[in-house]
Write a structure and sequence with these properties.
2 copies of one chain form a homodimer. Chain A is an alpha/beta fold. The first copy, chain A, has 2 domains: 184 residues, Isopropylmalate Dehydrogenase; 152 residues, Isopropylmalate Dehydrogenase, CATH 3.40.718.10. Helix content of chain A is 42%, strand content 22%. Chain A has 13 helices and 12 strands. In chain A, the strands form 2 sheets. A 10-stranded mixed β-sheet of chain A has the order 2-1-3-12-11-4-5-10-8-9, sandwiched between helices. A two-stranded antiparallel sheet of chain A has the order 6-7. In chain A, helix 1 links the parallel strand 1 and strand 2. In chain A, helix 1 packs across helix 10, helix 10 packs antiparallel against helix 11 and helix 11 crosses helix 13. The two termini of chain A are 18 Å apart. At the A-B interface, strand 6, strand 7, helix 7, helix 8 and helix 9 of A face strand 6, strand 7, helix 7, helix 8 and helix 9 of B. Strand 7 of chain A pairs antiparallel with strand 7 of chain B. Bound molecules: 3-isopropylmalic acid (IPM) (2 copies). One 3-isopropylmalic acid sits at the interface of chains B and A. One 3-isopropylmalic acid sits at the interface of chains A and B.
């Protein structure tokens, strides 16, 4: 297969972890006879510094014309103090999601047996946890009309959803559930919000098309509790943008393997793959960041092209590295810590 | 002191736990020379069954004219299947909050040394946890305009906040912080929402009036993570209605003492006190529900009247019962389980 991949390294540790994912992907491509052309493009604070824009049109062109986007991380402390400043790395992220139509954010949370003890939760609570959130990513209160009235003394944000937006996301949820344990949980606040009632009635109407899938409906506050109590009781969860923002972050810490969690944002035309961790500015350039989440994001990318074996080869390499203790300092547990680059080299050599 | 207390027992186990709180409060009143007149009134499913309304005007009259409201729990399974039905117990709750102007929901989360092992989190993560959420309760997306367009295919919920609403809640937060460790965390999503930017700028402008309070600003998704990672790093947190709904529920499970957590909802004129747990319909009438959260809510009520010693007497009785193992089955740990009523009797006798 010939693959054109847009490469958005971004800020902080982004470039370092992206380099390793490229290296491991190239090793996979070589082994399985694919050809990858990487198309680097600017984003985040790096893009603001260079051209005054966190998601420049030139970057959008590269992404739009690529078969997929591999993304590092964005965010820089110099933009942290004023969340209302008009030019911020996050604005670029939202613009990118909207312009590329990345409507479904896929966030798996799973455990690695060797890392169970890193979790803040007790082992018996998390053993076997393997869940996936599908978060709607281009609608809701993030993109509704917002502004001020009364000389700035009143602020508003409008949350809007259409039936189509819900169907599109829910369809992905049902399909994913069919490939897993056939359990789907729709997370909403239908006892208070009209948008949630639209979500619930839309998903209810789709149940008949997937008779094998067992669907449950839970309120977002209840899920925020049960995620901590019994994360392993969930499988596929679908939810709207803001609830997804909060719950996927909550879920990411319970597995104890946050530095290893990949994600995908699927669009109708192009999809994007990125680690869930941030740009970790303090670690920039120190060769200490864990590249595994980015490598596993690249594995999701291969799988999304239908290249299951290729994805599995990358996952297997990560598992082998974890077993062999070829890990960065966050996972070293007092043992030997390898550098970002050394872990990348080892993974590439073990494909 | 002469106290008029509206008594809203509600549904499920509500009446049983309320009975115990009344008993213990009466013991306190007798010991300290106060006189309490209890004014029972209907609410929740019980009120729907009786008069077709979850928060009837007659109940509102009782509450408005009382010095405080003691509340049990509402919710009944027969209303669970259709969250869009117009008459539901929750509708009564929202109406009550709005009509009584209960704008600040106070939700402490603290640990009992003897119950640390009940938490899903590891002991070292929660030891010393003692935080309080102040959740705004009468504004935001709960009460903004909501509805449908496009023949029902588009739904919307408007989130609105005024500077005054934020100030009123934040003032309570600063004042509470002054009586504790002088640390205040404002939880928002100011990188995305205009209402959150209003929250942040309003709180920032108030900092100068409380020079001793150290204020931090954190995004709601980050707090959802850190609450599980290091709950004991927080003290007072203030936030808007929906974020508060999600985060206070999340926080309630980490202490391991959920069945013991009280809450208060403060208004300009009258305030309401209730356990955070629900109506637990399966346990109705079985004399197994834990009454301690309701007793501790009554303790908050006394303290809110400035009767600190009275509140302390109730807390001390609960602590003594926990140490003596006079507990309901949820805390019995395989040991002897006492009935709801027996625990109430013991607490009253130990005032
Ligand atoms: C940076 C921010 C705008 C973003 C979001 O809220 O979507 C982030 O929290 C995420 O989840 O990717
Ligand atoms: C029942 C529901 C409307 C309510 C809320 O969302 O406020 C409940 O979850 C709560 O937190 O008291």
């Amino acid at each position: 297969m010939k693959l054109n991949i847009a490469l958005l390294a971004g800020d902080g540790i982004g470039p370092e972890v992206i380099d390793q994912a490229v290296k491991v992907s190239d090793a996979v491509a070589q082994k399985f006879g694919h050809e990858i052309t990487w198309k680097p493009a600017l984003t985040g604070a790096a893009a603001i510094d260079a051209v005054g824009e966190p998601y420049p049109d030139s970057t959008h062109e590269v992404c739009k014309n690529a078969d997929a986007v591999l993304f590092g991380a964005i965010g820089h402390p110099k933009y942290d103090n004023d969340p209302s400043a008009p030019v911020r790395p996050e604005q670029g992220l939202l613009k990118m999601r909207k312009k590329l139509g990345l409507f479904a954010n896929v966030r798996p949370t799973f455990t690695f047996p060797s890392l169970l003890d890193k979790s803040p939760l007790k082992r018996e609570r998390i053993e076997g946890t393997d869940l996936v959130f599908l978060r709607e990513l281009t609608g809701g209160i993030y993109f509704g009309e917002k502004g001020r009235k009364d000389n700035g003394d009143t602020a508003y944000d409008n949350c809007v959803y259409t039936r189509e937006e819900v169907q599109r996301l829910a369809k992905k949820g049902f399909e994913l559930a069919m490939t897993r344990s056939k359990k789907l949980c729709c997370v909403d606040k239908a006892n208070v919000l009209e948008t949630s009632r639209l979500w619930r009635e839309t998903v209810q109407a789709m149940e008949k098309d997937y008779p094998e899938v067992e669907v449950s409906y839970e309120f977002v506050d209840a899920v925020a509790m049960r995620l901590v109590q019994w994360p392993n009781s969930y499988d596929v969860l679908i939810t709207e943008n803001l609830f997804g923002d909060i719950l996927t972050d909550e879920a990411s810490v319970i597995s104890g393997s946050m530095g290893l969690m990949p994600s995908a944002s699927m669009g109708a035309e192009v999809s994007l793959f990125e680690p869930i961790h941030g740009s970790y500015p303090q670690a920039t350039g120190l060769n200490i960041a864990n590249p595994m989440a980015t490598v596993l994001s690249a594995a999701m990318m291969f799988e999304n092209f239908g290249l299951a074996e290729e994805g599995k080869a990358m996952r297997d390499a990560v598992n082998k590295a974890l077993e062999a203790g070829v890990v960065t300092e966050d996972l070293a547990n007092g043992g030997k810590a390898y550098g970002t680059k050394e872990v990348g080299d080892w993974l590439a050599a073990n494909i």
